[in-house]
Prior knowledge:
- By secondary structure, this protein is α/β, with parallel strands linked by helices.
- Helices cover 35% and strands 21% of the residues.
- Helix 4 (133-143) crosses helix 5 (158-165) and helix 6 packs parallel to helix 8.
- It is globular.
Amino acid sequence: MSGLRHLPFAVRLRVPVMGVVERHGLLVEGPAGWGEFSPLPTWSAAEVAAARAAADEAATRPFPAPERDQVVVNAMVPRLPPDAAARLAVASGCGTLKVKVGDELSEDRVAAVRSALGPGVRLRLDANGTWEVETALRALRRLARFDIELVEDPVASMEDLAALRRRSPVPVAAEMCLRTVDDAHRLRRLQAADAVVLKPQRLGGVGAALMAAEIAAVPAIASSALETSVGLAAVLAVAAALPDTPWAHGVGTALLLAGDVSADPLLPVAGRLRPRRVSPDPALLAATPA
């Protein structure tokens, strides 16, 4: 889109997340403020195009009016060794933790995080579509003893998710198979999930994410794609505009960044964030490799 300013950025992660060690892309300035274009390496060409549209939307259109002045958010624990996972979970200060599973250390990692946090903190899982249906069932039956509130993407396809949901001891959420608004229609027809997890950048922006949530007709959780605080502001705008949900939103991932592009980053305080726009700091941008 013409008339917009584009600034490159690169920010390293404190720990690898599913093989990602650095987030890079473009910050986009327009009449409404700043947006972020930072598709993940695994995204398709269509998803990259949607990410570009999302950045342009954030830069040119106001965010929707928030329904609440604070948003409850979760922190995320990557596939780390159990002791490191527990330390990261405790340091987050959040009341809900999403723990990555699907590898050989899954059960030990979840056990370590639950032991470190005690019974008062909520745990959810994210398998990134690693399991087949029967494998997922066996794993979830073992992991349910840790009082798991939700599992995201236990299997990869929407059809498998629908089949698993009918037998799972844990509520299931869809993210990987919900990449377009049309996917939300299919999820609703299949009754495939108890909740949807929406990455606004992947879907094409704030407006598309809110539309997908309405069409899916199940509780919706806004979730980051490991953006900087500029991009997280759009995810937080979705979270603040969605109807009430029993689950925290996945907007606490600035905790995983080794640095940020803003001097006033969106870091959770007691597991909450206030919706706001974020502008990059020129000095911080100058310090990042382009």
